[in-house]
Amino acid sequence: MDDLERYAAQHLDKNAFDYYSTGAGDDVTTARKIDKLLKAYQGMAHPDGELATVRAVNSMDTAMGLSIYSTNSLEDVALESPNTIKFMQMQFYKDRQFMESLLKRAEKAGYKAVLLTLDIPTYGRHIGRANFFLPEHLEFANFLSWKKKEGLRNNEEMNDHITSLNDGSVDWETFDWLRSITSLPFVVKGILTAEDARLAVQHGAQGIWCQITEGGS
């Protein structure tokens, strides 16, 4: 990991390197080298973005979890490597119609499960990410319907709009609704207590993703 970090420091611009190399909080886990993995916005690290990642994943004969904040659309990633097992990460938005559309897109593209992030409404406070921006030559590729619908002109406006629609008011009934509109199984991440782990299983979650991380999306 140290070799990769040194290489990244030499080849990425400051905006991208600060995003990838810092955590969301006090860098406790990043200092221990637990969370130094690329997640969202992979187009900042490689011209092919998530397409390069799924090719690498396929070469290792393993599975890929695609962030909703990918710079290539979920459909393009699926087409790039149709035989790779892929999971779609998403979270709750106030725009329920968009969520339903996203699930239908993932089903149609052949994704095998949903990685549902439950703790995203709490945002990081790391100073290294305070001025982060997605460069204009890249796109919030899975949100282009919002860009067209709302007449958003650039990535700063897109980011503000997406942030405003994150929904921190959900409960387990909301999860029940989400499960009812798709045949895909759900793996939940962001579970913080044993009680919520039990409730997740009771409400039909088919997996719990445990991670020690400050990075997030």
Automatic annotation (TrEMBL):
<dbReference type="InterPro" id="IPR013785">
    <property type="entry name" value="Aldolase_TIM"/>
</dbReference>
<feature type="domain" description="FMN hydroxy acid dehydrogenase">
    <location>
        <begin position="40"/>
        <end position="217"/>
    </location>
</feature>
<dbReference type="InterPro" id="IPR000262">
    <property type="entry name" value="FMN-dep_DH"/>
</dbReference>
<dbReference type="GO" id="GO:0005782">
    <property type="term" value="C:peroxisomal matrix"/>
</dbReference>
<dbReference type="GO" id="GO:0003973">
    <property type="term" value="F:(S)-2-hydroxy-acid oxidase activity"/>
</dbReference>
<dbReference type="Pfam" id="PF01070">
    <property type="entry name" value="FMN_dh"/>
</dbReference>
<keyword id="KW-0560">Oxidoreductase</keyword>
<dbReference type="GO" id="GO:0001561">
    <property type="term" value="P:fatty acid alpha-oxidation"/>
</dbReference>
<protein>
    <submittedName>
        <fullName>Hydroxyacid oxidase 1</fullName>
    </submittedName>
</protein>
<dbReference type="InterPro" id="IPR037396">
    <property type="entry name" value="FMN_HAD"/>
</dbReference>
